[in-house]
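Quick one, tokens below. Sequence please?
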């Protein structure tokens, strides 16, 4: 891995704090972003997924499903 960042996906930005998210009532999912070199990682357990931060990113992800297929 080259970089890992933890955070939250989904839910409301106003409640995207760990103290609130851990209650399980915000609609958030704890998530991480992992940056890795695919030429050094082998195995089917490593898959790509797109999480979007806003409606524009969601639209782009839905319009371009090949973004995952190319990885």
């Amino acid at each position: 891995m080259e970089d890992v960042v933890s955070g939250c996906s989904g839910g409301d930005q106003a409640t995207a704090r760990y103290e609130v998210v851990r209650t399980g009532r915000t609609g958030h999912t704890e998530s991480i972003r992992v940056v890795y070199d695919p030429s050094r990682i082998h195995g089917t357990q490593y898959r790509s997924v797109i999480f979007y931060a806003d409606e524009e990113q969601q639209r782009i992800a839905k319009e371009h499903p090949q973004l995952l297929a190319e990885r």
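The mean pLDDT is 81. The helical segments are 18-21, 55-63, 66-69.
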